[in-house]
Amino acid sequence: MADKKDYYEVLGVGRGASADDIKKAYRKLAREYHPDVNKAPDAEAKFKEVKEAYDVLSDDQRRARYDQFGHEDPTAGFGGGGGFSGDMGGFGDIFDMFFGGGGRRDPNAPQRGNDLQYTMTIEFKEAVFGKETDITIPRTESCDTCHGSGAKPGSRPETCSVCRGTGQQEVAQNTPFGRIVNRRTCTSCGGRGKIIRDRCPTCSGSGQVRKQRKIHVKIPAGVDDGSQLRMTGEGEGGQRGGPPGDLYIVLRVKEHEFFQREGDDIYCEVPLTFAQAALGDELEVPTLTEKVKLKIPAGTQTGTYFRLKGKGVPKLRGYGQGDQHVKVTVVTPTNLSESQKELMREFAANGGEYTNEQHQNIFERMKRAILGD
Q1: Which of 281, 334, 336, 364 is deepest in the core (most CB within 10 A)?
Q2: Sheet holding 228-231, edge to edge
Q3: Element at 141 (helix H, strand E)
Q4: Cβ atoms of 228 and 321 closer than 8 Å
Q5: C-alpha closest to that of 286 among 294, 296, 277, 278
Q6: Rounded to whole angstroms, how far apart are CA atoms 116 and 14?
Q7: pLDDT (tens digit per residue) in 221-261
Q8: d(Cα 79, Cα 59) in Å, to the nearest integer?
Q9: Can you tell me the distance from the alpha carbon of 44 to that of 132, in angstroms, rounded to the nearest whole number?
Q10: In a 3-state reduction of DSSP, which class is residue 309?
């Protein structure tokens, strides 16, 4: 008992939690750790722990005794309503409560296969215009030799004589207060309800094999980084004739050296010389498909954006395309020759501007006036 975790800690609630809070916490954790949903190795143990904590804290009398005595309840087993048996009993009923259905689940019923996820890296323009390609993924499929039964060809699984195909055993215990019946996973068939005497040599009785499967993928135009493609039925194979799961392809898009993307719009930056910005010009600007003419009006300032309508990304869900936005940046010339510098001085003088040299002369005159020289 000393190793048991506090029931309130197990459910993640405080000691003053209401009955509704306890129920909500239990439903959330039971859904998360239910063995039919969570395939982690420790899921079953965590589910049992959550179920045991809920059984106690949802009963007012048992909760009161637990709050008083903790796990060392001296009245445990004497009319206290029983405890969690630590077996798989009740899993089917709880699964039905969360996921639909009625009655106990058939251990031999078809079971859907697990979903798979595959991450694919594509080029920038492949995301814009789409592409078709083949990928190879490892997945579990139904064994072709035994057709998923797990039995050697010519034989077939037998119904378990211990549980009569239910997958569960009922263990009765007589107590001073009556007869208690606990259900647990059948130890003979492991909860499958079937016994395989002659195992399939290909799958060793599992009914499934691991294969490398080539799949053709069509990536639509307009996908973006993080987009997901769902390929129905391309996941893990189902069990006992159940349908396969789905394959989800997560797309990662490489960056482009010139273009940047925001939604369906494309952005790029084009340099302008001082003369082009001042006098105007006509540039040839690359787009996703071709080069187009862009007219730059005289007096354009650095940082100005121009829009090329319909030159962006095709809309993934709808018609039309986004736009391309061209930002112009005026590049300041460097390493001017003496003749170029003279022309710039003349330009500045004609515009009533001071050059750096003129600013220095003015500064010297101001300095002399202040010092009285």
Answers
A1: 281
A2: 116-122, 247-253, 228-231
A3: strand 131-142
A4: no
A5: 294
A6: 38
A7: 999 999 999 999 999 988 877 888 999 999 999 999 999 99
A8: 13
A9: 42
A10: coil
